[in-house]
Amino acid sequence: MDERRIIHEITPLMGKDVLYIADRKKKEFTYPIHNHEVCELNFVEHAAGVRRIVGDSREVIGDYDLVLITSPDLEHVWEQHECVSDNIREITVQFDFSFDADTIFGRTPFLTMSRMMNEARRGLAFPLEAIMKVYRMLDTLSSVKEGFYAVTQFLTVLYELSKCDGARPLATSSFAKIAEEDDSRRVLKVKNFISKNFRDELRLNQLADIAGMSPSAFSRFFKLHTGRNLTDYIIDTRLGSASRMLVDTSQSVSEICFKCGFNNLSNFNRIFKKKKGCSPTEFRENFRKTRVVI
């Protein structure tokens, strides 16, 4: 059996199908953690207390939750956790069409959608304001009889979401194995260096030199462009890699700790629990429930 025991879901989409829409009422979440080849927009309401896991992100959701996932390798699951609602509604839309530059979706009217699809490789959670903006279209999507109109209505949902503010990426880039991007060449150069060398000791002076700036100026510049201070960014990169190793390998927590740039096991455990809400061992166990490969 695959060491990770992650279900690789076989999508109902077949041949020339474009959309699969599942609109259902339920009392609990039972499907285990999984990934799949096609893109997915998942909407959940009346399920406060459910725990959503996307890659190395673990969050307890409120009454409304909307997440877009466009990576075939990103594991995700909605777990019952503390939810006591018996009136849960879940609308799952799986879709299979390319947003590559050489398709119509690479043209100017669709550029915001293309950027959103790229960002959603890490999973993208939308704020309540955005959810309410597309709620009516999602609510009626499964009742649209003609395929063409269902597709155009769904594309409108994606377009409206692509214009909203406040969407948050969920998994870290290092866990999702996504190359970093940035509008600043200096910041991107430093990010790429960190991505390749996070296992080693990294010093502010060293990174500032790569950017061609003084340490104090670079610290301010980095936070301005990323919204995070440099230390937190390095820690998150290391934790993302550690989380991926916990899922993908059978190496001990101690081995993973030192291979990901942490030089103290107790410090690693403390930081991991603070950032992820659980210990490294508990994180690993969340990906190791009884599963059947489908």
Q: Any chance you could write out the topology, listing elements then pairs?
A:
Blueprint: E1 7-8, E2 19-26, E3 34-35, E4 39-45, E5 51-54, E6 57-60, E7 64-69, E8 76-79, E9 88-95, H1 111-119, E10 124-125, H2 128-141, H3 147-162, E11 168-169, H4 173-176, H5 185-197, H6 204-211, H7 215-226, H8 230-248, H9 253-259, H10 265-276, H11 280-286
Parallel strand pairs: 1-3
Antiparallel strand pairs: 2-9, 4-7, 4-9, 5-6, 5-8, 7-10, 10-11
Keywords:
41% helix; 3-stranded antiparallel β-sheet; 11 helices; 6-stranded antiparallel β-sheet; 294 residues; alpha+beta
Mean pLDDT: 89
Strand adjacency order, main sheet: 2-9-4-7-10-11
- The termini sit apart by 12 Å
Residue windows where pLDDT falls under 50 for at least 5 positions: 290-294
**Percent of residues in beta strands?**
15-25%
Count the E strands. Answer: 11
Helix content: 40-55%
- Tell me, what's the shape? globular
Helical segment count: 11
Q: What sequence of helices (H) and strands (E) makes up the elements?
A: EEEEEEEEEHEHHEHHHHHHHH
The major sheet is characterized as: 6 strands, antiparallel
Helix/strand/pairing class, anyone? alpha+beta
Radius of gyration: 20 Å
